[in-house]
Amino acid sequence: MPETKKIKINTEYIKLDQLLKFAGLTMTGGEAKTAVASGSVMVNGAPCLLRGKKIRAGDTVSYNGVVIEVISQ
């Protein structure tokens, strides 16, 4: 079963590449960009190639065996 992390945001949204870095799944923004471009990042169960995709509370992001649940403050 994949590891699940709950990440709180206190803004309307966070961009996908920023979320990957903020959650500690990538070390740098460049690494996040590469991960998204490779097609290995899933948003709400579907592959996402848009690193600037707006992720809002209620969305889930999966990468490298970790599922991030985005929740609001």
Summarize the structure.
The chain is an alpha+beta fold and 73 residues long. The protein has helices at residues 16-22, 29-37; strands spanning 3-9, 14-15, 42-43, 46-47, 54-55, 60-63, 66-72. Strands 1-7-6-3-4 form a 5-stranded mixed β-sheet, with no helix packed on it. Strands 2-5 form a two-stranded antiparallel sheet.
Characterise this structure.
The chain is an alpha+beta fold and 73 residues long. It has a single domain, classed as RNA-binding S4 domain (Structural Genomics Hypothetical 15.5 Kd Protein In mrcA-pckA Intergenic Region, Chain A), CATH 3.10.290.10. Helix content is 22%, strand content 36%. It is built from 2 helices and 7 strands. Strand 6 and strand 7 form a beta hairpin. Helix 1 packs across helix 2.
Distance between the termini: 27 Å
Shape: globular
Count every helix, treating DSSP H or I runs of 4 or more residues as helices. 2
CATH class: Alpha Beta
Fraction in beta strands: 35-45%
Relative helix content: 10-25%
Structural class given helices, strands, pairing? alpha+beta
Largest sheet entry: 5 strands, mixed
Rg calculated over all Cα atoms: 11 Å
**Arithmetic mean of pLDDT:** 95
Oligomeric assembly: single chain
Give the strand order of the largest sheet, numbering strands 1, 2, ... along the chain.
1-7-6-3-4
* Total number of beta strands: 7
Order of helices and strands: EEHHEEEEE
The H-level CATH homologous superfamily, spelled out, is RNA-binding S4 domain
Q: Using the 3D structure, state the CATH architecture.
A: Roll
